[in-house]
Design a protein that fits this description.
Strands 1, 8, 9, 10, 11, 12, 13, 16 and 17 form a 9-stranded mixed β-sheet that branches. This protein has a 4-stranded antiparallel β-sheet with strand order 4-5-7-6, with helices on one face. The radius of gyration is 24 Å and the shape is globular. The longest helix has 19 residues. The two termini are about 45 Å apart. The protein contains 17 helices and 19 strands. The chain has 2 domains: about 270 residues, 3-Layer(aba) Sandwich (D-Maltodextrin-Binding Protein, domain 2), CATH 3.40.190; about 230 residues, Roll (Dipeptide-binding Protein, domain 3). By secondary structure, it is α+β, with helices and mostly antiparallel strands.
């Protein structure tokens, strides 16, 4: 029945949009075919808080502001904004914009979209948590009311796609889909945004087809008539499809296949470091770890043990052998492009097995100990191989690690349940691209509002205090000083063990120009085909 509902829903979408689409959209002349390793979670812009899904939906739904390929904020559905009061921002909306069904875009849609996105069951609400309300000033002006002054408000609004109130209400989609219901809702299979592309058809886990919006308010940089997206989980199958000429672009490219694709005719590789940093973190909360042979004590609570683990990791060996020279070792979770980055806290502890063994002895573990390690095997570039290499490195200093490398859905479920002792995680800071995003999510004491991804329970009163101040400090010099102090604290505490920025590799067909940004987001409205 679920399959039939999905099929019927997809057919209904295809038929209705085919009938509504203009003639020029019915006979595309340039089709852009591309693939990623998984499917988008939903067409509902507030049902998920997942980077790839939100990036895809930005082609259909638009926010008040957006990032360009240089990760600079630029106007989108708002043409200008000003701070009327420290906690009141006024946005003047773009006039003459229409949704894909022809309905005019007005302030009522912004008010409705806030109420829907902030609903209790909307996972997306965390992205607009600084906003406590939206007031309509007139048909093309709205005020965003904040809990506190917020220097990075615009960054947090980039993925907030505005929906059409009348369309949502008419189709029973005035509330976001419950996460447990998956794709069984109208907004999960249908869409009505203002963006550069319109949804033509949606076949869950098979393909999603978009067509050019001929009435888009912006001047198109692209020349694409049709977009066909295919989720292809198997890396070998993605590579084969690219080599067979079935795709114009695919990512991620497996590191072991880069040379093969580069050698193929009419294919080129785009490769840069991604914003995402891969790291390890620890359970420093429980008094005893269930997967350790240490009884009555949690060894990871001891700073010396965390330092020993850091010293035992040969990051250059990982870069050279596991990552085939493509990764960039780092000493902090923030990439250089992140707002607030400071080179002073981008320094690694050296690889030093002797120091690791000495520290373990000082901590009372001269013979080492046993512990579990949780890693995904399909989420990051060579994630399982990295973890396997680290298992061997830690064994050389006496730490015996039992590796659990499982699909991402199982791995993240264990982390969310706070049941992991020692785990891998990756973080890019999207969509905010600011130091506060790292501190508030990864390092603040978990309290229901902050520290949501601090699965190990690291806690520092000073870091909490600094992070709250950073979130509202408008003086950039004072703000940067606080950012630097906070990151120096977490670095000294070895709250996490940074590894590297993972490589970002796309395979692109000859004649296709696709700007690549460090956030690993494909912006098809900037793609051109010969």
């Amino acid at each position: 029945m679920t399959f039939l509902r999905r099929a019927v829903g997809a057919i209904a979408v295809a038929v209705s949009l085919w009938a509504a689409a203009p003639a020029e959209a019915q006979a595309p002349t340039r089709t852009f075919r591309w693939a990623w390793q998984g499917d988008i979670a939903s067409m509902d812009p507030y049902a998920r808080r997942e980077t790839f899904t939100l990036a895809f939906l930005n082609h259909v739904y638009e926010g008040l502001v957006r990032y360009n390929e240089r990760l600079e904020i630029e106007p989108a559905l708002a043409v200008s904004w000003e701070i009327v009061e420290p906690t009141r921002w006024r946005f003047r909306l773009r006039q003459g914009v229409r949704f894909h069904n022809g309905a005019p875009f007005t302030a009522d849609d912004v008010v409705f979209s806030y109420e829907r996105a902030a609903a209790p069951n909307a996972i997306f609400r965390g992205n607009i948590s600084p906003v406590r309300g939206v007031e309509k000033v007139d048909d093309h002006t709205v005020d965003l009311l904040l809990y506190d002054p917020n220097p990075i408000l615009l960054r947090g609004l980039t993925d907030w796609g505005i929906m059409n109130r009348a369309w949502a209400v008419a189709n029973g989609a005035d509330r976001p889909v419950e996460p447990t219901r998956g794709h069984d809702s109208y907004a999960a299979l249908n869409a009505n945004g203002t963006g550069p592309f319109m949804l033509r058809s949606r076949e869950v886990d098979v393909r999603t087809v978009l067509v050019r919006n001929p009435n888009w308010w912006d001047r198109p940089q692209h020349n694409i008539d049709e977009v066909v997206f295919r989720p292809i989980g198997s890396a070998a199958t993605r590579v084969a499809a690219m080599l067979a000429g079935e795709l114009e672009l695919m990512f991620p490219v497996p590191l072991q296949d880069i040379a093969r694709l580069q050698a193929a005719p009419r294919i080129r590789i785009l490769q840069e470091p991604e914003l995402r940093v891969i790291f390890f973190a620890f359970d420093v909360t429980r008094d005893e770890l269930p997967d350790s042979n240490v009884r009555g004590r949690n060894p990871l609570k001891d700073l010396r043990v965390r330092q020993a683990i850091y010293h035992a990791i040969d990051i250059e060996a990982i870069r050279r052998v596991v990552m085939r020279g493509a990764s960039v070792p780092v000493g902090t979770l923030m990439a250089r492009e992140i707002n607030g980055y400071d080179a002073s806290f981008d320094r690694r502890l050296p690889y030093d097995q002797a120091a690791a063994r000495r520290l373990l002895g000082e901590a009372g573990f001269p013979q080492g100990f046993e512990i579990g390690l949780d890693c995904p095997n399909d989420r990051y570039v060579n994630d399982e191989q990295i973890c396997a290499a680290v298992v061997g490195m830690l064994a050389r200093v006496g730490i015996r690690v039992n590796l659990s490398a499982v699909p991402g859905s199982q791995w993240i479920a264990k982390l969310n349940a706070r049941q992991s002792s020692f785990y891998m995680l990756g973080w890019a800071g999207l969509p905010v691209v600011d130091a506060h995003h790292f501190l508030s999510n990864l390092y603040m004491t978990p309290d229901g509002r902050f520290g949501g991804n601090n699965y190990g329970g690291y806690s520092s009163a000073r870091v909490d205090e600094l992070t709250r101040a950073i979130g509202s400090e408008l003086n950039q010099q004072r703000r940067q000083q606080m950012i630097t102090e906070a990151f120096q604290i977490v670095q000294n505490d070895v709250a996490t063990v940074p590894l590297h920025r993972q490589p970002l590799a796309w395979a692109v067909r000859e004649g296709v120009r696709a700007p690549q940004a460090a956030d690993n987001v494909l912006r098809i409205w900037t793609v051109r085909m010969d």
